[in-house]
Design a protein that fits this description.
six-stranded mixed β-sheet; 9 helices; elongated; four-stranded antiparallel β-sheet; Molybdenum Cofactor Biosythetic Enzyme, Chain A; homodimer; Alpha-Beta Plaits; 260 residues; alpha/beta
């Protein structure tokens, strides 16, 4: 097997609205799905409130733990947007309105003859030594400070920012993922043999997830989704075949997901 | 203003499938929404992989930090379900198959003449001194260890388990939440006055969230969602009225959410 290079990421979601349950986060999934094909695996995610000390502590823990950290939320113009100041504090850097960021914001608002108010200028506050991240949706940039990428919380803006930073990320070996679904298969039926298969294949990670899908009112389709992940394509294929065989032997029709 | 009692919770989502982006988590939102009316506020959430040391560290950090911890995921019958053992390790407790848990599982499977395999017995492994949590969907129980509630990852099962533990939770003062939407309102227009309003009302927490909703292909409705939260109902009402006035003064139609 060829050498593999492991590259890791942590995601930090910042915002009371996610913790209160008012907003369903979409960014963890979209960031993880964006990074996977680059060979960057998310190893931890945290959600913290709009409290400076909490943000600082999480940023400093995560940037020491993972190769990259991606934060979302709290970079708008209102009083509750404290992420930029918190990142500066985490790095022990100064922060002020920066000419290049302000120029981008002024140019953006000029197009629609919208005044750049004092609060909009706040969005040009960038920690010392950071590089900017383009925002193709609303103009105001995100920024990269060391290995920490600070992005917007609105999923469409976050997505645009990811596109802008992809080329700055040094990827690793891609972890491939394939899966087999067995409708009506229950985890307990396959668990023992699956455990043996996992022991025999330490370089493939096998996960088992029951599903209960309400097809229509009162009618539930249940089954088990068996997911295998590995950096070794051939080992992965062998395990997927073996899982499909196990499902078949138990009397269920294995549905193998197309290769991803 | 009456005395308020602050009660906090942390949520720990356990599972590679959430971190890989394969599964969109629904449990953080459902747990937060379940706890809010009980006067319990989620102050932090973490997502960790199926790695014992990571789970142990997160459980021990969070149970010291919050009044209650709610974990989801990793309590099924397969080899990748390591949450029960990890919780036992975090508390320094022994763990073994427990008669009461096994009886529940046997009774459940007996109804459908399903054999209780060795791997299904694993689901009766409960850390010493824990009390059980009913699972109305698939039988195998969750458990409470000290201030930590260990629940299933499947959202429907997690929901059922929350119902079972509600009466065990000592709630606090309920944080009320109300909001005003302004279609076409942009954050930058209202930011300064909103900041002043926040300064004048320290016992109300005001958040501002831009939205971009694709109404149909290519047609986006944008605006700003202004959310106020407080344990003081009258202060909250005053702030909501003041926000609605600000939105109106700026020339937009405020849409006040019905009281919650």
């Amino acid at each position: 097997m060829a050498d593999t290079r492991r590259v890791t990421a942590a995601v930090l979601l910042i915002g009371d609205e996610v913790l209160s349950g008012r907003t369903q986060d979409r960014n963890l999934q979209q960031i993880a799905q964006f990074l996977a094909p680059l060979g960057i695996n998310v190893i931890e995610a945290r959600t913290v409130p709009d409290i400076e000390d909490e943000i600082v502590e999480a940023v400093n823990t995560l940037r020491a733990k993972a190769d990259y950290v991606f934060t979302t939320g709290g970079i708008g113009p209102t009083h509750d947007d404290i992420t930029a100041d918190s990142i500066a504090k985490a790095f022990g850097m100064t922060i002020d309105v920066r000419a290049d960021a302000l120029a981008i914001i002024e140019e953006w608002y000029d197009k629609t003859k919208t005044p750049v108010t004092e609060s909009r200028k706040r969005m040009a506050r960038i920690p010392e030594g950071s590089s900017l991240i383009k925002n193709p949706v609303t103009g105001a940039p995100g920024f990269q400070t060391g290995n920490v990428f600070t992005m917007a919380g609105v999923p469409a803006i976050c997505r645009g920012m990811l596109e802008d930073i992809a080329h700055r990320l040094e990827g690793g070996t891609v972890t491939l993922s394939r899966s087999v679904k067995g409708d009506n298969l229950r985890e307990g039926e396959i668990a023992e043999k699956l455990g043996v298969l996992q022991e025999e294949n330490p370089n493939v990670s096998i996960g088992s997830y029951p599903y209960f899908i309400e097809v229509k009112a009162g009618e539930v389709r249940r089954g088990t989704h068996l997911v295998a992940r590995s950096t070794d394509k051939r080992a992965l294929a062998r395990v997927i075949d073996a899982i499909a065989d196990l499902v078949q032997e138990l009397g269920y029709e294995p549905r193998i997901d197309p290769e991803e």
